[in-house]
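hey so i finally got around to running both of the ones u sent me last week. sorry it took forever, my laptop kept dying halfway thru and i had to restart like 3 times lol. anyway pasting them below in the order u listed, first the sequence line then the structure token line for each. didnt double check formatting much so if smth looks off just lmk and ill redo it

first one:
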Amino acid sequence: MPAVLMQAKVDHLYMKIRDKNTSNQDFRRYGKRLMQVICEEAVGHLASEATIETPVPGQTCTGPVFDQSNLVAISIIRAADSMLDTFMHVVPEASVGKILIQRDEETAEPKLFYSKLPNLAGKQIVLLDPMLATGGSAACAIEVLIQAGATASKIIFVSVLGCPEGVALLNKKHPEVTIFAGKIDTGLNDKKYIVPGLGDYGDRFFGTD
């Protein structure tokens, strides 16, 4: 399916994290504010309609309600650790898993180095990675989750920034997975960076650029 785009008006935050002159400290500040909104909207996307009683006698309200007890948050190390911290503030009840995938320098293909996952059977899974560029790491991570017992239709991939190439790859390899992105940029350059982009999210967030 095509990517679900966030509806919140946060272009001012994107401008801050795109700016090459933004310091690492400010990148973290504005990035956390942005990721808070993205995580809240992603959780809202998972909600289903229910009716509740309000404190006013005889009054009810119908709207989206989300079962937080059935959620697993998965971080693709290391850039997604920044998102995981924010997500756990939104849904502290979630179980947590981690996956480490790095590109093989000889083949340019993603390679799994480590995974530590809770029980995934029947769970709603939020797979976190701030950047969806080529889609290779995300596709590899989804394969790891499915092999560990996850249901593809119960996986939502959540990113700060994506591009058409990454969306196309995930749609081809895992069409049942929902892609939730804050924004989709123009595409990739010859070095496989998203353009106009914002550089390496992990390096700028953790101050290793």
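and the second one:
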Amino acid sequence: MKKKNGPISLTDADVQRARRHLMRRDPKLGALIKRVGKCSITATSTREPFFALLSAILSQQLSSKAADTIRGRVVALAGGLERLTPARLLELDPAALRAAGVSYPKISYMRDLAERIIDGRLDLRALETAPDTEVIASITAVKGLGVWSAEMFLMFRLNRPDVFPVGDLGIVKGVQQHFGMKRRPKPRTMIRLAENWRPYRTVAAWYLWRLFD
């Protein structure tokens, strides 16, 4: 695993190791892993962190298609992805963002994110090596970003190996189906059941999502 003087992040070799580990620990999950094939979670680690968090805000309560459309409009307003910096975002006219489909609450969340990065309250570079708990605390301090958003950042941007988002509906349904439960499990039950998948719960979660693809 890659280690930058701090917490580890998954490499492609680690993902293969995780697959073998999970297949040994949980044959039923192993059957799903074999059926789905390669886990591609490391492919998202190159996404620029500001854009990753901005996307998390824009995606809230929207379908993937709608979120992609609005995200594209915001990028266009900024003059392209390479120009979409915190400073550039603050220059954008709120009325133009609203016309692009961004709600006023989300505009305030986006601006709060940009302001925190500019004034140093949110140090994106420091998140690369911060413990998972500190990453969650830093991200949830931003308006509109909760624990789920922080966990998605940990999993898909930082590729941390052992994150299990018990508040994600897809994971809740995945655990329910995987263990043949009549009712949707509570978070404490999910945490207990997922203990068997440590230290690769991120990879296990990625495969549980595939149950509904």
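quick thing i noticed on the 2nd:
The longest strand covers residues 2-3.
anyway thats it, ttyl
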